[in-house]
Design goal:
The protein is mainly alpha-helical. It is built from three helices and no strands.
C-alpha cells in the first residue's frame, strides 16, 4: 500500500515552503528586472483600458520596443 494513498497526512516541511516561496519571488524579481514581463504587463494594461483596435503579438511588441528605444538620437559623446 502506498503511503500517499493510505490516507496519511503528507505535508511539506515549513523550511521547504519558505525556500520555495523565496525562489519564486526571486525568479519574479529577476524576470521583472530583465524586462521579461513587459509583454504580460502590456496585455494587462490593454485589458484594463479596453481592447483597442490592435493588440500586438509578442514579436511585434518587442520589435516596437526596440524601435522606440533606438530610434531616438543618442546624446552620448
Amino acid at each position: 500500500m502506498n503511503v500517499l494513498s493510505s490516507g496519511a497526512d503528507f505535508r511539506l516541511p515549513a523550511r521547504f515552503i519558505r525556500v520555495q516561496r523565496f525562489i519564486r519571488r526571486a525568479w519574479r524579481g529577476l524576470r521583472e528586472w530583465c524586462g521579461d514581463t513587459a509583454y504580460e504587463r502590456y496585455l494587462d494594461s490593454k485589458g484594463r483600458r479596453g481592447a483597442g483596435p490592435i493588440t500586438l503579438t509578442r514579436e511585434e511588441y518587442y520589435v516596437e520596443q526596440l524601435n522606440r528605444r533606438y530610434s531616438r538620437p543618442s546624446r552620448c559623446c
